[in-house]
């Protein structure tokens, strides 16, 4: 990932703010706390088609997503990672963030995901910033976007 205006390559050290903290980009790890571990694994593996790279049954599951990773953690285990007061155990009532990923054809991906049971909150549409996008939720209400450049024609 290249930061706008930054001539360095991904993976090089960057200095954040005035603290002089050194951060090295080596890919992102998105960690999702899930209420129903088995239901979440079923969704990510059988609906989205992700391959589980590593898992501890009932605890966590790791997926490679391009050069990044995604880790599902059961909410009761998440209490141990943070603290019980810092983990939201209530069902999501709306998007707090969006996990976005490119696809070759938004309409084809939309039809395939919908046929496998994904719940879409926005159907495919061309957006003014030049992407065709559609949005769906996982079993915990986390929002996903699939997108591709708007076809020129």
Automatic annotation (TrEMBL):
Name used for this protein in its record: VOC family protein
Domain VOC intervals: 24-149
Membrane-crossing residue ranges in chain numbering: none
UniProt source species: Trebonia kvetii
Taxonomic superkingdom: Bacteria
